Amino acid sequence: MMSLRKFAVGSMLAATAVAALVARQFVNPGPVSGDLFIHDPTVVKTPSGTYLAAFTADNVGLKTSTDRTVWRDAGAAFPNGASWTTPYTGGAKNLWAPDLSYHNGQYYLYYSASTFGSTKSAIFLATSSTGASGSWSNKGLVIETTETSGYNAIDPNLIVDASGQWWMSFGSFSSGLKIVKINSSTGKPADNNLISIAARPSNGGAVEAPYIIRHGNYYYLWVSFDSCCKGAASTYRIMVGRSTSVTGPYVDRAGKSMMEGGGTEMMASHGSIHGPGHNAVFTDGDGDVLVYHYYNDAGTAQLGINLIRYESDWPVIY
Ligand SMILES: *[C@@H]1O[C@H](CO)[C@@H](O)[C@H](O)[C@H]1NC(C)=O
C-alpha cells in the first residue's frame, strides 16, 4: 500500500525522467467490465471455477466474477467492522492490501491495518469456507511493527514452496521486504526469523507489495516501486526478480540483487494507464494471470488484468 513516501519524492522524479527518455512500450490491460474500482487487488480461483477478488477498502472489499472479465461488487469481508484492528488504524475502517488464497477447504485472507506514513502496523488473518461477505472468522494478529521497527507489517502474501512449506512475504519501504516461515496449522509465523528479500537503499526504500509465485524451477518476486496513491500522478510500477529459493537471493534480468534495488521493469505508466502496481499473480487454466490496479485519467483506481507467459524463464506480460 504505502508508507513513508515522503522520503522517495526526489528519486521518483529522477526515475520518471529516465522512463520518459527510454519511452518503453507496455501492453494495455486486457478486456474487463462491470464494477472495476479496485486498489491493491488479489484474486483467487474458487473450487467451482469462479473468481473471488479482495482489495483495499473499508472492512476489506470483495468482488466476484464468473468469467474473469465481468466483475461485481460482493460487499465487505467484515460488514460489522473489524474492531480488533483499531489499535493500528486509529479507528479508520480502511483496511489495506489483502491477500487471498485457498487451502484445505478454506479461504485465507491476510490483510494489513495501519495509517498512512506510519510503521505502527499489523497483518491479520481471517478464514472462511465460502469467501462471502460476513463469513470471515478473525484468526487474529500474524505480525506487527512499531514506529521504530525499521520495516512495515503491511502488504502480506502467502506462498507455499515446492516442499509444501508455507511462507509469508510482506512490507514495506524503510529497510525493505521480508519473508517469514508460516506454520500451516495456525497460519501464523513458525519462528521469529525474518529474512530480507528486497530493498532500495538508494531510492528512499520505495519498494512494497511483494507477491511470490513459483513457476518451473524459479520463484518470481513481483514488487511495486515508487509511489502508490496519488491518482493520475501515481508513479507505481511493477518490477520482478527471480530465485531458485523462496527466501532468495532474488536477482533481476541483469543479475542485480533485489536487496540492492534490482528489479526488471514489467509495467510502468503509459498512455492513460497511470501508476500500475500492487499486483498479484494466480494460475488459471490458460496460464498465469497478472492482476493489478492503475489509475485512469480521472484518477480513479481500476482493475487491470493481463496474462503472463515465460520466455527463457522470465515473465512476459501480454
Ligand atoms: C504448528 O502449530 C501447532 C499448533 O500450535 C503446533 O502444535 C505445531 O507444533 C506447530 N508446528 C511447527 C512445525 O512448529
Automatic annotation (TrEMBL):
Annotated metabolic or biological route of this protein: Glycan metabolism; L-arabinan degradation
Keyword Ribonucleoprotein included in the entry's annotation: no
Pfam families documented for this protein: Glyco_hydro_43
DNA-binding among keywords: no
Residues spanning the signal sequence: 1-19
Record keywords: Glycosidase, Hydrolase, Signal
CDD domains the record matches: GH43_Arb43a-like (cd08998)
EC code: 3.2.1.99
Annotated catalysed reactions: Endohydrolysis of (1->5)-alpha-arabinofuranosidic linkages in (1->5)-arabinans
Superkingdom of this protein's organism: Eukaryota
Family recorded in the similarity comment: Belongs to the glycosyl hydrolase 43 family.
Full protein name: Arabinan endo-1,5-alpha-L-arabinosidase
